[in-house]
Amino acid sequence: MILTSLLIICLLSLVSDVYLWYRVARHWPAPWRYMHWIPLCIVSVLIVMMLTGIMFTWIFSFGIYLFLLACLPRWFHALMALLRMPRAGMAVRIMLVAVGLYGITFGWKRLVVRETEVASHALPPSFHGFRIAHISDLHLGTYSSEPEMVERIVKMVNEASPDLIVFTGDIVNTSPQELRPFTETLARLKAPYGVISIMGNHDYCTYGPKKSASEPLAMQEEIIAMQRQMGWNLLMNGHAVLHNATDSIAVIGVENDGHPPFPARADLEKATSGLTAECYKILLTHDPSHWRRAVLNHTDIALTLSGHTHAMHLRISGWSPSALLFSEWGGLYKENGQYLHVNTGTGSNIPFRLGAWPEITIITLTSAGAR
């Protein structure tokens, strides 16, 4: 899938650049007309580097910047020129560059707090009004040059005064060294019932520069150890029971379970072992596609919390390109009395967001007025 996407980007860039050369750029004075080819050359080099395993965060980020500010605007310019609207094409190109610059400069740091409510008659009365802060996909490596963003996340979560904080995976991009500078900051996340977390696909450390067969496992163990040192309750196919007076609810946490090439390591049977049918259950699972595959109509889990999609960092009037890949990609969903909430990312593995702003979600559980 990744190889196909890279090849499509390269082919579309080649076609649009050749067309714009013959229609526009070849008439420019030297050396400007030759500079027309620079973005395509750089894109080609980056793609070769990625395909040969030379992959660092800065390469990935630079490639994204180049795609947003050079390749994509040129595609639209070429299309409009082909439709004999070259001036309109240039206007669209300039607009796309401006929008891309906003998303790169400000959009991925525009942190918002969203609130939603989940109603269920199965919720024990003493948990009515219970507030959960749902955060996901921190991808801390992206914030090595913006550490104050992580400080803001912690401050805004704590100011919301949740009863419980949950994190639904992807704390890093490629390596545990991304987490090390932020352990003290993240340890300051506070709630009466603490922080419960799970692993996401990036937390298995199989991305990035080539690694030996043993390195990913050692990196996973380091990430697990650091989360527990921070005071987080990391669940790996297990559960935690939360008590309030004589009532209790269970938070279940499974390892990542996604379609290939993403790892599928969830064991719901093991994670729910010992829980009664009457128990109100909340599941943390990184990939929202797991809900429809194995939770909905297969279990008595009332509420599932996921992340992973990031809304592909783009949302326009309620639509995201994530809808092309995921049935449920962002927000709250309900079917046959079971709920799924997908957080579209508190952090960003790509330093760009537009419309799909980084979010903290406050979910209030209610036992009355269930629909």
Question: Please, could you describe this protein's structure?
Answer:
This protein has 371 residues and is an alpha/beta fold. It has two domains: 104 residues, no CATH class; 255 residues, 4-Layer Sandwich (Purple Acid Phosphatase, chain A, domain 2), CATH 3.60.21.10. It contains ten helices and twelve strands. It has a six-stranded mixed β-sheet with strand order 1-12-2-3-4-5, with helices on one face. Helix 9 links the parallel strand 7 and strand 8. Helix 1 crosses helix 4 and helix 3 packs across helix 4. It is elongated and about 80 Å long. The two termini are 40 Å apart. 41% of the residues are buried.
Please summarize what this structure is.
Helix content is about 35%, strand content about 15%. The chain is α/β, with parallel strands linked by helices and about 375 residues long. Helix 1 crosses helix 4 (about 55-80).
Secondary structure layout:
Blueprint: H1 2-23, H2 32-35, H3 38-51, H4 57-82, H5 86-105, E1 112-119, E2 130-135, H6 147-159, E3 164-167, H7 183-186, E4 195-197, H8 215-229, E5 233-234, E6 238-244, E7 247-253, H9 268-271, E8 280-284, H10 289-295, E9 303-306, E10 331-335, E11 338-342, E12 359-366
Parallel strand pairs: 1-12, 2-3, 3-4, 4-5, 7-8, 8-9, 9-11
Antiparallel strand pairs: 2-12, 6-7, 10-11
Helix pairs in contact: 1-3, 1-4, 3-4, 4-5
Give structural attributes.
Purple Acid Phosphatase, chain A, domain 2; six-stranded mixed beta sheet; 17% strand; 371 residues; 10 helices; alpha/beta; 2 domains
- Our Rg estimate from Cα atoms comes to 23 Å
- For the termini, the CA-CA separation is 40 Å
CATH hierarchy, class of the largest domain: Alpha Beta
Shape category: elongated
The order of strands across the largest sheet is 1-12-2-3-4-5
- Segments where pLDDT lies below 50 for 5+ residues? none
Helix/strand-derived class? alpha/beta
Total count of helical runs of at least 4 residues: 10
Helical fraction: 25-40%
Task: List the domain count as a whole number.
Answer: 2
Helix-strand pattern: HHHHHEEHEHEHEEEHEHEEEE
What is the second-level CATH architecture of the largest domain? Answer: 4-Layer Sandwich
Strand content: 15-25%
